[in-house]
Amino acid sequence: MKNLSKIICLISISVLLVACKDNKNSRREAPIPTVTTQIITKQSAPLSVEYAARAEGYKEVEVRAQVSGILLKRNYREGSHVKKDQQLFQIDPKPYQIALQRAEAAQKNAEANLKSAQRNWKRIDSLFKKGVVSEKSQDDAISALESAEASIDQAKAEVAAAKLNLDYTSVKAPISGITSKEIVSEGSLIGTSSSESLLTKITQIDPIYASFAIPDSEFIKSRQMMENGKISSQEGHLIKAKIFLNDNITYDQIGYLNFTDPSIDTSTGTVDARAVFDNPKGDLFPGQFVRIALQGLVLNDALLVPESAIIQNPQGKFVMIVDTDFNAQIRPVKTGLKVGDSIDIEEGINDGDVVIIEGMIKAKPGQKVKIETPNTEAKVTSK
Prior knowledge:
Layout: H1 2-28, E1 34-39, E2 43-64, E3 69-74, E4 81-82, E5 87-91, H2 94-129, H3 135-168, E6 170-172, E7 177-179, E8 189-190, E9 198-215, H4 216-227, E10 231-233, E11 240-244, E12 255-260, E13 270-277, E14 289-302, E15 304-306, E16 311-313, E17 316-322, E18 328-339, E19 342-347, E20 354-358, E21 370-371, H5 374-382
Parallel strand pairs: 1-21
Antiparallel strand pairs: 1-20, 2-9, 2-14, 3-5, 3-8, 4-7, 5-6, 7-9, 9-13, 10-14, 11-12, 11-14, 12-13, 15-19, 16-17, 17-18, 18-19
Helix pairs in contact: 2-3
């Protein structure tokens, strides 16, 4: 009985030792993690940056009366589109018609006085040459003639002013655009002061502006990158712009950046910028909020890494690469501009590095990994 117990005990110990040995071997032969990689090479990538923007009228003009009087008629519908030089209002012209008639009569009188002075000068001059009249008489005749000529010039100026005032009674549109609501009703007495002369406003919406603000740090960095050739434009100095409306509807007209403020707004820390767009159908309205994308830019010599491959912790940003021995390594990086779902790496990796884009959690620094992408594996081996 004792021998049987000893045999069972020996068998149990043997099984336990075999199990421990198998477990140790299994730990030693743990599978190599498989990762997905991407070979990072320098490339030129189209760059698009988006900002919140607001549409603004290309021109906004106040229509004011230049003469006083009773407003007789409005010749347009409020909120409608009017053309340049179209008559908008009619101010009572009668007082100005009478003033013109008076000025024209004064001109005729001045013309008659001039003819009389010319005749008198010829007569005095002839008598002076014969020694019949004195030199003073000749001087008086010359002065009378000169005064009559000056009166003619003044009379003509008065007529021109009267005609101008009469023309001002017909208030015309200085530009083409959309009118605002009526500010003064028909039958009202119109003045010429700043508080009494405003009749309506016209906003030109074709073309139309889209104004937006660029953070100062982003603006300064982008400008530096353009100066050193890191960013360039596909169309020389023109930077294209595109507008996105609500529900991601794309506006069908391409615009161009046409203004950036030379100074930074200290209250907001931004730089004001503006793009201009054709608006033939009137789809954009002043005050409308949109998103604007600056396009046609190229990021040169970019090392683009998928954003999901970048690890961030309190110490900074990192990526994991695979070296020539198929070992995973950590690389601290400095990131730059975002391009789609990728980010340009300014410092930390080199052209041709193999970056792990999936499976970073399984890979440990210094340990071997298995690369899932065949062409990437061949690239590593060749190094």
